[in-house]
Design brief:
single chain, alpha+beta, Helix Hairpins, BirA Bifunctional Protein, domain 2, 20% strand, elongated
Amino acid sequence: MLPREFLRENAERLLSEFPERFANSGLERFVDLDGERRGLVTRLEEKRRRRNELTAGRGKPDPETLAEMKGLKDEIRELEAETERVEAELAAAEQGIPNAPQDSVPRGRDESANRVERTWGEPRRFDFQPAAHWDLGPALGILDFERGAKLAGARFTVLTGAGARLSRALASFMLDLQTREHGYLEVAPPLLNNAETLFGTGQLPKFETDLFRTREGLYLVPTAEVPLTNLHRNEILAADSLPLRYTACTPCFRAEAGAAGRDTRGIFRQHQFEKVEIVALTTPEDSPAALEALTGHAEEVLRRLELPYRVVSLCTGDLGFASAKTYDLEVWLPAQKTYREISSCSNCDSFQARRANIRFRPAIGQKLEFVHTLNGSGLAIGRTLVAVLENYQRADGSIEIPKALRPHMDGIAEIRRPA
């Protein structure tokens, strides 16, 4: 969350400068409720002060004083109840207000205003018409959409044989890279998290309909960002322990798998998918550089796999709820002849840390501060598998295995159609 003082002092500016982000966010209602609450608190304090004056008097109070005291008691009770009600509404409005964008974020209403920062690699030129992964996978016997639908419904897929092996190899490759070369600590977190954990990273209460909830009230994780960021919820960290870096490969579950009718074919947008997540907790002054580093760690996966990609800065109207700045990595998909998102790397400043109450003390005797949290996909396994299939396909329908993955596949160099 953003501090109340910040919202109180900057509401008019935020609404004026970023209408695409704050116009329907509840910020205007926050302002109204905040003013109402402060008025109630002032009246309540006045009544309490008058009550204290009367009760501090010496001797037995006269009938008029007794009557006033009784009236004050009733008024105070009513004002306390009204203040409590308005405070609850204020907190609800506050929880629905998104993070404030950093100054370097491009301004714009939607993804059309996103800014390409850099590209890497040249898209391969095929001497045949490249096929989409939803045709390549079934022909190779490694993706089974029909049985996925039979088992669970739409937006579920079964990976078999070399497809399952390739998925496992990608996860192993990514985890090894992040832990051995980039200094992340691997974690195997619970896949069911409580509501407080989901609140900490901003999924609750705003995005509850996007989540799978059990009858016991736990939620299937939509991303490992949730448990990794909350590892230190309600903790005070030592300044010299920062930065903390964590990574995990988990299944991810999302009840809402994107816009209706979009990406209904293939495995690009699923209700269940695997992803390697990378998370960092830093001091405020170090977080800008930490975002560049974390984004580079995700980029390195694509470079090692030799997959062409570009880095895009999301504009103010396209930023995620908790993010203050986000880079999307978009990989080239030859069958679609376009770049598609394969990772989002975000700096959330202190927004999540305030919700999760993660603090540190810069030095002995200094005031506690909230850490800054960062997260990124390093990468989404299914989407990386799609990119490998489409970019490494051959004219006969076989798939070359990227050199970086072969050690994780016992040296297998290609996937061919079943005999």
